[in-house]
Amino acid sequence: MPSSNVPFAALLLSCGCGLWSAAVAQESPADRWIVQLQDAAPEARAAARAELLRLGAAAVVRLTGYLEHTQLEHAAACLEVLTEFGPLAGGAVPALAELVRRKPMDRRRERVELLLATLAELVPHHEGPDPLPGPESLMLGMELGLFQQPASSLVMWRLAARKKLAPPQELAALLVTLGGRDPMAVEVAVERLGRLGPAAVPGLPALRALLDRAEPRLVPTEHRVPLHRKAARAILCIAPDGAEAAVAREVLAGTWAPKAPAAPVLPERLRARVDELVLELRRSEVKNRTAAADNLVALGAAAALPVAALLKPDENADTLVAALDVLRRLGKQAAPATPAIGEALLALPAPHTIGVVRALATTLPWSTDVFVVPSHSSSVGHLQLLGRSIGGTIDVAFLNEFDAAWRELHFAQAVPIDASVAQLGDLLGDKSVLRRRRALEVIAARGAACVELLPKLVAAMELEHPGEPRNERIDAQRSRVTKVDRTDELQRLAAAAILAVAPADHAQVPLARARLEAPAPPAPAGGSADK
Predict the structure, then answer these.
(1) Could you give the CA distance from residue 283 to residue 288 in angstroms, rounded to a whole number?
(2) Residue 57 CB: number of other CB atoms within 10 A?
(3) How many Cα neighbours within 13 Å face the side chain of 486?
(4) How far apart are CA 216 and CA 339, in angstroms?
(5) Phi, psi of 470 (to 5 degrees)
(6) What string of pLDDT tens digits covers the 531 residues of the chain?
(7) Nearest alpha-carbon partner for 214 in 225, 204, 203, 222
(8) H-assigned helices in 447-507
(9) Which helix (H) or strand (E) holds 426?
(10) pTM of the predicted structure, to 2 decimals
(11) Measured CA distances, 450 to 23, 201, 423, 425, 430 (Å)
(12) Are residues 434 and 411 in contact, defined by beta-carbon separation less than 8 angstroms?
C-alpha cells in the first residue's frame, strides 16, 4: 500500500492514471490496487496483483479503463494482470481492440505491441465477432513494421493463431484436447480448465503431467508455449489444497524444473552399428552414402538422434543432404529428433533449408516438443523466417521449391495426427486438396483405428479431385497461377489408406492393390495466368 496520507482522489490525479476515462470515473475497491501496480517496491506491486486477482471480474473493467492515458510501464503492469485473469477477462477483448485502433502514433508501436500480446492471450475466451479482423491486423502490422521484428512478428502470429481456437466448454472435450499434440490448443484447454475450478478435478493428473515435460518450442524462435505457468495456475484454481498444489506453487515461484528425459540406451551392438553407418554417411562416395542411409532408415528410431547430431553448419554439404533425407524418411520414428531439426532451420544455410522443412513436415506432427511458426517473407534474394534472414542464394527456382515444401509443413501441422476419426472423415471432402492429401496420410498412419472410414476411402479412390492452385514465380517481377492436378496422387493415397485400415480379407483390398499397381497417367498441362 502507498504510505502517503494524501487523499486517494488526489493521489490518483497526481500519478496521471487516466481517471478521466469514463470506465473509471467512479472510485472502486480495485482502483487503489491498480495505482499500487506502479509502486517502486516489488513487494507492494506483488501485493497489488494478488488483491486484483482476488477481486476477479470486478477488477477487469477497471484495469481496462486505466489503459487509455496511463504511462507505458503502468499500462504494461495492468495488461500483465489482465493476462493472468485468462478466460475471466475475455470480455475485455473489444475494449483492448478499440485501444489498438485509437492510440496516437507517438510511442504507438511499444504500446500497441503490449495490447496485441494481451489480446492474443484473451481472444480465445471472447464470445462474439472478431474484434480485430485479419485484414485489419495485417494492415496494422505493416503500418508499424511489426513483421520486420522477430518478437513483434511472433505476437502477430500468436494473435492470429489463437483467434482461430474455439475451446470446447464440456469437461470431457477439454480433457481430449489437453491430451493432444497441438500446443496452442493444449494451452487454451489448460486456461479453460482453470476457469472451471473444482469442476475440473478429473483434469488434475493431465495438468500435473504437463509440468513434467518440456514446454513446446516455437521454432524458429527461442520462445516456448507457456504451459508450465498456465498449468500451475489452473491446478491452484481447481484444487488449491490438493496434492498437486505444492508443485504448482514451485512452478510459479520459479523453483521448479522438469527432469530432463533420459537419453535412450541402445544395446551395444546396435549402438556400434549406428555409429558405423553414421560414419559411412559422411563418406564422399555416393554409393556408400546411399547404402548407409537405407540401412539407417531400416534401423528406425535408434538412428534418429545420432543422425540429427550431424545437422551442423560445419558438416559436409553432401552429408547434410543425406542426413536430412534419412530423418524425413524416418518420419514418426524420428520424432525425438524434431528439436534438433528445428534448430537446423536457422543454423543451416539456404541450400539445406528446403531439406530441413521437408524433414520437419514428417517428424513434427508426431512430436510434442516443437511447433513451427508459419511466418515468413520472401522475394528473389531474400528469405526471412519470422524476421530472421536465411543466408545463401535465394533465386526463383529456390523460392518455388521452398514454397512447395512450406505448404507441406503447413498442412502437416494443420491436420493433427490425433484428430478424431470423424474429423478426418470430414477432411476427405475438404475444399483444399492439400488438406485432403494430409488427411489421407494421417488415416494411413493411424491404420485400423480408422476402419469406419472405409466407405469414404473407397469413394476417394474413385473421385476426381479438385486441382491445387499454386502461385509460381517466373522471375523477380512476375508470377503465374497454375493449377496442379493431384487426382492420381490422391487416389493412390486413398488406396494405400485402404490397405492400412482394412482387414486383409476385405473386398476392397484387391481393388486398392490394383490401383497402386496401375501406371501413372501422363501429367496434363495445367492452365496458367500470368500476373
Answers:
(1) 7
(2) 10
(3) 21
(4) 9
(5) -135, 130
(6) 333 333 333 333 333 333 334 444 457 889 999 999 999 999 999 999 999 999 988 899 899 888 877 888 999 999 999 999 999 999 999 999 988 887 665 557 788 889 999 999 999 999 888 888 888 887 877 777 777 677 788 888 899 889 988 878 899 999 999 988 889 899 999 999 999 999 999 999 999 999 998 899 988 888 999 999 999 999 999 999 999 999 999 999 999 888 877 777 889 999 999 999 999 999 888 999 999 999 999 999 999 999 999 999 999 999 999 999 999 999 999 999 999 999 999 899 999 999 999 999 999 999 988 888 877 888 999 998 877 888 889 999 999 999 999 999 999 998 989 889 999 999 999 999 999 999 999 999 999 999 999 999 999 999 999 999 989 999 989 999 989 999 999 999 999 999 999 999 999 999 999 999 999 887 655 444 444
(7) 225
(8) 454-462, 487-501
(9) helix 421-427
(10) 0.81
(11) 54, 31, 11, 9, 18
(12) yes
Residue 416: what residue type?
A: P
User: Under a CB-based contact definition with an 8 Å cutoff, are residues 52 and 199 in contact?
Assistant: no
How far apart are alpha carbons 95 and 119 in whole angstroms? 10
Distant-in-sequence, close-in-space partners of 86: CB < 8 Å, separation ≥ 6: 121, 122, 125, 191, 194, 195, 230, 233
**Closest residue by Cα to residue 68 from 92, 103, 115:** 103
Specify the residue for cell string 465477432. 129
Nearest to 349 by CA among 380, 321, 379: 321
For residue 248, what are the contacts with CB-CB under 8 A and spacing of at least 6?
A: 211, 231, 232, 233, 235, 236
Question: Strand pairing of 468-473 and 388-389?
Answer: unpaired
Report which residue type is found at 344: A
Query: What are all long-range contacts of 500-504, with beta carbons under 8 Å and residues at least 24 apart?
Result: 500/443, 500/444, 500/445, 500/446, 500/447, 500/448, 501/443, 501/444, 501/446, 501/447, 501/448, 501/449, 501/450, 501/451, 501/453, 501/454, 501/457, 502/451, 502/454, 503/451
Interatomic CA distance for residues 35 and 508, integer angstroms: 71
C-alpha distances in Å from residue 423, one per residue of 90, 188, 439, 442, 465: 28, 20, 9, 11, 19
Q: Which three cell numbers stand for residue 23?
A: 470506465
Place of cell 491404420: 447
Take residue 382 and report the three cell numbers written for it: 531474400
* Alpha carbons 204 and 248: distance in angstroms, whole number: 11
Is residue 521 classed exposed, middle or buried when 0-12, 13-18 and 19+ CB atoms within 10 A define those classes? exposed
- Cβ 194 vs Cβ 233: under 8 Å: yes
Residues whose CB falls within 8 Å of the CB of residue 35, separated by 6 or more in sequence, listed in order: 2, 11, 12, 15, 17
Spatial distance between the Cα atoms of 491 and 484, rounded to a whole number of angstroms: 15
Which residue, 397, 406, 346, 338, is CA-closest to 221?
A: 346
Beta-strand (E) ranges in 130-260? 217-219
- Cell numbers that stand for 415 in this block: 491436420
Which class for 489: exposed (0-12), middle (13-18), buried (19 or more C-beta within 10 A)? Answer: middle
**Cα four-point dihedral sign 118, 123, 124, 126:** positive
Q: How many residues does the chain have?
A: 531
Residue that has been written with the C-alpha cell 493431465 in this structure? 206
Cβ(413)–Cβ(372) below 8 Å: yes
Strand 217-219 versus strand 370-372 pairing type: parallel
What residues does 379 pair with on adjacent strands? 382
